[in-house]
Amino acid sequence: MSEEIKKAIQNLIETINDKPQIATSVFRASSYSEQDSFAIRSQIRGFSAVMDEPLELGGTDTGPNPVEMLLAALGACQEIVYRAYAAVMGLKIEGIEMHAKGYLDLRGLLNLAEVPSGFSQVSFTTRIVSAEPEQKIRQLAEMVERHCPVMDTLMRKVAVNGKVEVKRPDVPAESPRVVLSEIPKD
User: Fold this and answer.
1) Domain extents for the chain?
2) 75 contacts 82 by C-beta, under 8 angstroms
3) pLDDT at residue 146 tops 60
4) What is the value of pTM for the model shown?
C-alpha cells in the first residue's frame, strides 16, 4: 500500500508543480436537522454521517457529537499525513493510533458564563509502531505537525463567514429567503 500512497502523492506534487493554479481545493459538507432531536445527518461527497449528543446532554446518542468528530478529524488527518509522508520518505510504519482529548466548559455553550463555547485546550498522544530509527520518526512527526491541515486549522485564526436564511414552510422552495444575519469576514 505505501508504494501506492507514495506514487499518488508524488503524482499530486508533480501535477501541482506543473499547474499551481489547481492547488486550491474546496471541500464541502452539508448537515440536515430533519427531526425534533439533536440527531443530525451530514452529507459529505457520497457519504452520510450521523451526529447526535449523548443522553446526558439531551440527545438520543445515535452518533458522536460534533466536538467528538472534531477530535476524530484531528486524529484521522494526522494519521493520513503520517502515512503520506512516511511513504514518500521510504519509512515503514506498522501502525498509528492517535488519542485526543478536548476540554470544554459547558457554561459557554449554555450561556451561563463568559467563557469560550469551544475547546479551551486539545491534547493528543500519537503512537507509532515502527522499527525505523528514532531520528527518522522524529523527522516524520515534525513534518506531520507542520503540515496536517486539521491541526493547522485548529492552531491558527481562520476566517469564518456565513449567513442565516429563513424559509417559510408554506412558501415555494424557489422563492427568495429572508436573510436574518451574516457573519462578517474578519
Assistant:
1) 2-183
2) no
3) yes
4) 0.86
User: Stretch 138-165: mean pLDDT, rounded?
Assistant: 94
Find the distance separating the first CA and the last CA of the chain, reported in whole Å.
43
Q: What kind of architecture, by CATH, is found in domain 2-183?
A: 2-Layer Sandwich (3.30)
Q: Is 128 helix (H, G, I), strand (E, B) or coil?
A: strand
Task: Provide the β-strand partners of residue 100.
Answer: 124
Asked whether residue 141 carries a pLDDT value surpassing 60, the answer given is yes
- Of 83, 61, 65, 85, which is closest to residue 73 (Cα–Cα)? 65
40-44 vs 30-32, strand pairing mode: antiparallel
DSSP H/E element including 51: strand 47-51
Measured CA to CA, the distance from residue 151 to residue 132 in angstroms comes to 25
Cα four-point dihedral sign 17, 27, 166, 68: negative
Q: Estimate to the nearest angstrom the gap between the alpha carbon of 81 and the chain centroid.
A: 13
pLDDT at 32: 94
Give the integer Cα–Cα distance in Å for 124 and 146: 15
**Chain Cα centroid distance, residue 95:** 21
Q: How far apart are CA 176 and CA 167, in angstroms?
A: 8
Q: Can you give the pLDDT at residue 171?
A: 77
Asked whether the CA dihedral 152, 155, 159, 162 is positive or negative, the reply is positive
What is the pairing mode between strands 162-166 and 30-32?
A: unpaired
